[in-house]
Amino acid sequence: MSSTQVSPTVAVRCSPVVAALLLLASGCSNDEGAKTPSISLDAAFEASPFASGDASVTGFVTDVAGEPLAAVPVSMCAAACWPSVTDVSGRFHFSDLSPDDYAVDVRGDRVADDQLLSTIFSLPVRAGTQQLAAPVRLYRADIGQSWNGADRLTIGGLELTPLQPLDVAELQRLTGDTSISGVMVPPADWPSYRLVHAGVTYEPRAMWALRPFAHVLPAALELRIGDPVGHVVDAETALFLVDVTTGQGQWVGAAEPADSERPGATIGVISWVILAAPSTAG
């Protein structure tokens, strides 16, 4: 998703029903290794039952063909979370927001009878009216073949190997998914992520959206880069995971090719994965 994508909704009484649709991880490390406190949904919603500010945000959500997607849950979270859903034109709208840095969470996997992927990205909101520069396009997951929870999965050149076998039946019970699935997202639909580690700024080279989004895994997945990603994987390339509470990129380790004997980077929650290299910008 190139810059931003989203669709409007009415602004935003905090409905417990909608709140129940939103999943937040139990906490995540920032680039320095410190724990970022997770947001309690109950606390976030109770703290601010109505938005009260001078900013508004409108966006649209579509499928890959550009057709609007209705009834997609969208939330914006900063100090509190504000929920909405897209209307029949795929539009969502938030008004009376306080200026802040928000995480925009678009849940394609909450759309009935469709295997769509979710996304989250950060959005600085300032006073006044903002419309996302581009629609948020939600891709259909590449479901693939049946999976036993132990074998390697390959999604568009990204190889995912459980460090311990995962209980596929439990995965299905918790999420409705029988496997981990996803798609390699074309550059035109990349959100804008700030990718920094140890003082080095990185530029994305490839992105993958994975499903079931925001599911915390009982055992980590090891990541390696195989074909046909089409980018050099060397000592400088790295992998980032998009934090499911903040929409920011988190460094998870050096990128290792499929044939490397070194351990690959690992992730413990399903989100977007980014292959990146140090920025060449001046």
Describe the structure.
It is built from three helices and 20 strands. It is mostly beta strands. The protein has two domains: 16-138, Immunoglobulins (Immunoglobulin-like), CATH 2.60.40; 153-278, Chondroitinase Ac, Chain A, domain 3, CATH 2.60.220. Strands 13, 14, 15, 17, 18 and 20 form a six-stranded antiparallel sheet that branches. Strands 3, 6, 9 and 10 form a four-stranded mixed sheet that branches. β14 (196-197) and β15 form a beta hairpin.
Query: Could you say which overall geometry the principal axes of the C-alpha atoms support?
Result: globular
Estimate the helix proportion, in percent.
Answer: under 10%
**CATH architecture descriptor text of the largest domain:** Sandwich
* Strand portion: 35-45%
**Kindly state the mean pLDDT as a whole number?**
83
Determine the CATH topology of the largest domain.
Answer: Chondroitinase Ac, Chain A, domain 3
Largest sheet: 6 strands, antiparallel
What structural category do the secondary elements indicate? mainly beta
Q: What is the top-level CATH class of the largest domain? A: Mainly Beta
